[in-house]
Amino acid sequence: MHKLERLLRPKSIAVFGGAQAAAVVAQSIKMGFAGEIWPVHPTKDEVAGRKAYRSVADLPGAPDAAFVGVNRHLTIEVVKALAERGAGGAVCFAAGFLETEAY
User: Fold this and answer.
1) pLDDT digit string (tens) for 5-52?
2) At residue 37, what are phi and psi to the nearest 5 degrees?
3) How many angstroms separate the CA atoms of 48 and 58, rounded?
4) How far is C-alpha 42 from the chain's CA centre?
5) Are strands 90-92 and 65-69 parallel, antiparallel or unpaired?
6) What whole-number distance in Å separates Cα of residue 46 and Cα of residue 76?
7) What is the three-state SS of 30-82?
8) 90: enclosing H helix or E strand
9) Which terminus of the chain is more solvent-facing, meaning fewer CB atoms within 10 Å of its CB: N or C?
10) What per-residue confidence (pLDDT) applies to 38?
11) Residues 47-96: pLDDT tens digits?
12) Cα four-point dihedral sign 15, 21, 24, 26
């Protein structure tokens, strides 16, 4: 299997964040994604009609792909936890890294 196969053809995706996560869940369903969708939120029980997990550790398995829509500080923590869990890859949607210092 190619190293990017899990990320590009996932059977499960974890989705992190608030409004962005809900939009990703809704769009994935609209596009006919047939795999597992695992929203992750530290305080919500449900995101876009799906059961939400509190953390990467609480997920039922290592996701093939992850959408990370949290702030830049949490992004690093989430990606580290995903790597330790054995996730296939992550797409990060966060501002505040180097581009905030561009003039």
Assistant:
1) 999 999 999 999 988 889 999 999 999 999 999 999 999 999 999 999
2) -120, 120
3) 18
4) 13
5) parallel
6) 24
7) HCCCCCEEEEECCCCCEECCEECECCHHHCCCCCCEEEEECCHHHHHHHHHHH
8) strand 90-92
9) C
10) 98
11) 999 999 999 999 999 999 999 999 888 999 999 999 999 999 999 987 66
12) positive
**Phi, psi values for residue 4, rounded to 5°:** -95, 0
- pLDDT of 100 over the 70 cut: no
Please compute, for residue 27, the number of CA atoms within 13 A of its CA located in the half-sphere on the CB side: 9
Helix (H) or strand (E) holding 13: strand 12-17
Helix (H, G, I), strand (E, B) or coil at 49: coil
Helix (H, G, I), strand (E, B) or coil at 19: helix
Residue type (1 letter), 93: F
pTM of the shown model: 0.87
d(CA 24, CA 27): 5
Q: Which segments of the chain does DSSP mark as H helices, in order?
A: 5-8, 19-30, 72-85
Q: The tokens of 50 are what?
A: 């799906």
